[in-house]
What we know:
- This protein is an alpha+beta fold.
- The chain has one domain: Alpha-D-Glucose-1,6-Bisphosphate, Chain A, domain 4, CATH 3.30.530.
- It is 35% helix and 34% strand.
- It has 3 helices and 7 strands.
- The chain has helices at 34-43, 46-56, 121-154, and strands at residues 4-6, 10-13, 20-30, 63-66, 75-83, 91-102, 108-118.
- Strands 1, 2, 3, 4, 5, 6 and 7 form a 7-stranded antiparallel β-sheet that branches.
- The longest helix is centred in the last third of the chain and has 34 residues, at 121-154.
- It is elongated and about 50 Å long.
- The mean pLDDT is 81.
Amino acid sequence: xxxxxxxxxxxxxxxxxxxxxxxxxxxxxxxxxxxxxxxxxxxxxxxxxxxxxxxxxxxxxxxxxxxxxxxxxxxxxxxxxxxxxxxxxxxxxxxxxxxxxxxxxxxxxxxxxxxxxxxxxxxxxxxxxxxxxxxxxxxxxxxxxxxxxxxxxxxxx
Length: 157
């Protein structure tokens, strides 16, 4: 049985820089073994479906997708850089980090952490205002990742 647990959102403020960040973590158990899930995580591109969905809303002229170089066999990350207004330079950075582990019972666990921060105070306020929507999209996308990894592990493409 697959479950998804959602942690309460966390608001972080770096005391040294004053930088604000919102985070949320989704945890799901998978039906696949950790080895099969790792292969699936390497083979599929879970961010592509989200990029297509957001692109359908016309965000492509304001967004850039990146995959950070710190991805490995058990973890991958994606970063969305979003310009609020091309004329003001304010941006949002929304990062997804997926990690695969085994729990104490030997089940495969997928943990997805979403972090969002703004380039300045105004951008951070805009992210905080939009967080319920970002959080809903992130939660639904976490479910898509879970299904995609389990489906691929069951029957590789």
